[in-house]
């Protein structure tokens, strides 16, 4: 098997597949697929995939949507009910990846190593969140990128938002994450 630019080519079968794990995030607005950069953010990807395996994300919502910034989900159920999570993980923001449009990153508090289950998709280039440019000197860990269905992300970023339960930028109608599943990505 030959690997070029993060894509593995199977010379014998003629198939092409992503070198890293791929997940399908099915939402009430459609499905998008994300390649996870296991090679660049192993702790973060392992953590995310454990939440996927536990079906933690199923039935959660995109609870924070800022149309010119990002869409964030993975931690709340409808009604802004926060879900229980595992212990926080190490921040891998020094992995050389940038918070560019279409990338998936971990949300966290002001504490560097505080990410648990919440993630966000950048809807524009947000390089000020990269470790090299972050005001706090820490930054936010990029661990994947949308490889299919960016139009779904665009639909989500356009939803109407308001304030709910003391939180701002909450969609007025729930944007539900129906499921997150690992998929085999093979194309001819």
From TrEMBL:
User: Which InterPro entries does this chain map to?
Assistant: Cyclophilin-like_dom_sf, Cyclophilin-type_PPIase, Cyclophilin-type_PPIase_CS, Cyclophilin-type_PPIase_dom, E_coli_cyclophilin_A-like
PPIase cyclophilin-type domain mapped to chain residues: 19-182
Among the GO molecular function terms of this UniProt record, one is:
isomerase activity
PROSITE patterns associated with the record: CSA_PPIASE_1, CSA_PPIASE_2
| Reactions this protein catalyses | [protein]-peptidylproline (omega=180) = [protein]-peptidylproline (omega=0)
Q: Extract the Gene3D superfamilies matched here.
A: Cyclophilin-like
**Pfam families of this UniProt entry?**
Pro_isomerase (PF00160)
Swiss-Prot/TrEMBL keywords:
Isomerase, Rotamase, Signal
UniProt signal peptide? 1-18
Q: Which EC number(s) does the record attach to this protein?
A: 5.2.1.8
Function text: PPIases accelerate the folding of proteins. It catalyzes the cis-trans isomerization of proline imidic peptide bonds in oligopeptides.
Family according to the record? Belongs to the cyclophilin-type PPIase family.
**Name of this chain's protein:** Peptidyl-prolyl cis-trans isomerase
């Amino acid at each position: 098997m030959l690997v070029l630019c993060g894509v593995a080519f199977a010379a014998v079968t003629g198939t092409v597949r992503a070198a890293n794990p791929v997940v399908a995030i099915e939402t009430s607005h459609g499905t998008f697929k994300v390649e996870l950069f296991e090679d660049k953010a192993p702790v973060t990807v392992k953590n995310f995939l454990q939440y996927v395996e536990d079906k933690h994300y199923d039935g959660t919502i995109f609870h924070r949507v800022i149309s010119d910034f990002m869409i964030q989900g993975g931690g709340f159920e409808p009604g802004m009910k926060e879900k229980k999570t595992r212990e926080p993980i190490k921040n891998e923001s020094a992995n050389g990846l940038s918070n560019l449009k279409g990338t998936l990153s971990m949300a966290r508090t002001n504490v560097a190593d505080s990410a648990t289950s919440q993630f966000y998709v950048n809807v524009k280039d947000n390089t000020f969140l990269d470790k090299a440019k972050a005001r706090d000197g820490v930054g936010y860990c990029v661990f994947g990128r949308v490889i299919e269905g960016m139009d779904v992300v665009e639909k989500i970023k356009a939803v109407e938002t308001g304030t709910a339960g003391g939180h701002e930028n909450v969609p007025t109608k729930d944007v539900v994450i129906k499921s997150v599943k690992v998929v085999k990505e093979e194309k001819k």
